[in-house]
Design a protein that fits this description.
Elements lengths: L5 E4 L2 H10 L4 E5 L4 E2 L3 H11 L5 E6 L9 H6 L6 E5 H6 L11 H11 L4 E10 L10 H15 L3 E5 L5 E5 L7 E7 L3 E4 L2 E4 H12 L5 E8 L4 H11 L3 E6 L5 H11 L4 E5 L3 E3 L4 H9 L4 E9 L5 E3 L2 E4 L2 E4 L19 E3 L6 E5 H6 L12 H11 L3 E12 L11 H11 L18
Parallel strand pairs: 1-2, 4-6, 9-12, 9-14, 12-13, 16-22
Antiparallel strand pairs: 2-5, 3-6, 4-5, 7-8, 10-11, 14-21, 15-22, 16-17, 16-21, 18-19, 20-22
Helix pairs in contact: 5-6, 7-8
Length: 442
């Protein structure tokens, strides 16, 4: 049995001619002057044999490893690399090349295939070495109108502008302005931040109330009995009718407290939030809601900083049987070779310290597991969402400080580790959206 035939092209003129006339099964577009690896064609043929329904394949180069395919990330960044293998028949079905996409036909074809529901497959092998023109692949001056056209074809309303590096900034329009329930568990604890003693939940709520640009919100405060009455009084004075106070008398259980808060929430969307945060981005709710309203998105989260300004959360990383945070400890302006910290992107999971989810999706997965009272409850929650085909999206445009563990001691019970691995061990070995090798965990 013969493998698929491949026709290699190296510029857009050859690409157009190949789509029109080649008899090969696949067209391999080599972009930016890249040099194919010696075994690239054999590797592509092998993967096509394993995934015979694939319509577009892309892979690594010796300058960067790439994440699995994500339609949301592709809208914001041409991250597919210098080698694209396109099924010829499928490329012809799109009507060939669009003159308006000259200079970025590979990206345009990838977006059109994505919109058509094509099978796009990541090949975890080095297919090429980047060429001298590799930066031209990511020229946002060309990609910006292509993305606008793509969104128009999908009927998605969004403002598209230049972002940082190779990324575009997509500000999704809101389909509606629903009530958002901000669910915050607390015991009214205090901590010293920047040399000042503060009641964490009061200052978190004050910052949100005074600085958020989205006002259709309620605050569901799940307060331990130990919460001082003075804290409740301050919250009542700040929020008035927007305060939904829920009492908690049982021992600490973050999962159960969040579930109880969700029971009392009236909003169509839940914004799950720790009490030890400080708002940076006034439009954070619009950003999260715009993402959460996209088809197939189950949860949206953002960029959290430690008190010293370094990164605390760039999304979850599930690898080697453990769960951690992407980019933890990185300087605020740091990025990887793909520009991953500059673009809305799919992640395996995200922290419940700041997470937007629809109430319907929250209850569809049964909320948080009370068997994970202090840790990994958000990992379990995200994996349950993903098991229903819902994606988790992290955005660099939603920024908050997270004074992590300032209000409680951060310990992990052996039972929590055991529970996580008993449920999801096979799903936390290799992270599809943040490639790692060996112990290279960022």
């Amino acid at each position: 049995m013969h493998g698929p035939s491949l026709h290699v092209v190296r510029d857009e003129l050859e690409l157009g001619e190949a789509i029109a006339g080649t008899e090969a099964d696949f067209i391999v577009l080599v972009r930016g002057g890249a040099v194919l690896s010696d075994d690239a064609n054999d590797t592509l043929s092998e993967v096509i044999g394993r995934f015979p329904e694939s319509d577009l394949l892309y892979g690594d180069d010796d300058g960067a490893r790439r994440p699995a395919f994500s339609a949301v990330r592709l809208r914001g960044q041409d991250y597919l690399g210098p080698v694209l293998a396109l099924r010829t028949e499928r490329a012809r079905s799109l009507g060939g090349l669009r003159p308006e996409a000259t200079g970025a036909h590979g990206y345009d074809l990838a977006l059109r295939l994505s919109a058509a529901g094509a099978s796009i497959v990541y090949v975890p092998s080095v297919l090429a070495s980047p060429g001298a023109g590799s930066d031209d692949i990511h020229a946002t001056a060309r990609t910006l109108p292509i993305v606008r056209h793509h969104l128009g074809q999908l009927g998605i309303q969004a403002e598209v502008s230049h972002g940082r590096g190779s990324a575009l900034d997509l500000r999704y329009a809101l389909e509606a302005r629903p009530l958002v329930s901000i669910v915050i568990p607390t015991r009214g604890g205090s901590a010293v931040i920047a040399g000042t003693d503060r009641v964490m939940v009061v200052e978190a709520v004050r910052g949100i109330s005074e600085r958020s640009s989205y006002d259709n919100v309620e605050f569901v405060i799940v307060a331990d009995d130990a919460t001082p009455q003075s804290v409740i009084d301050e919250l009542d004075a700040l929020l008035g009718e927007r305060l939904v106070l829920v009492r908690w008398s049982a021992p600490f259980n973050f999962s159960a407290k969040m579930n109880r808060g969700a029971v009392h929430a009236n909003g169509e969307y839940l914004l799950l939030l720790n009490d030890d945060i400080e708002l940076v981005s006034p439009d954070w709710i619009e950003r999260l809601l715009g993402l959460a309203q996209q088809p197939d998105v189950g949860l949206a989260s953002g960029l959290l900083y430690f008190e010293d300004g370094t990164v605390q959360h760039g999304g979850h990383l599930y690898a080697h049987g453990q769960a951690g945070h992407i980019a933890i400890g990185w300087p605020a302006d740091a990025d990887d070779e793909l520009g991953s910290m500059s673009v809305d992107r799919e992640v395996s999971g995200a922290t419940a310290a700041c997470a937007m989810v629809s109430a319907d999706d929250f209850w569809a997965v049964g909320g948080f597991s009370s068997l994970l009272p202090g840790n990994y409850n958000d990992v379990d929650f995200c994996l349950k969402l993903r098991s229903l085909g819902r994606s988790v999206i992290w955005s660099p445009h939603v920024k908050l400080y997270h004074f992590e563990s300032k209000t409680r001691e951060a310990t992990v019970a052996p039972s929590e580790i055991a529970a996580l691995r008993s449920r999801w061990n096979s799903r936390i070995q290799v992270d599809a959206y943040w490639p790692t090798t060996g112990d290279d965990r960022r």
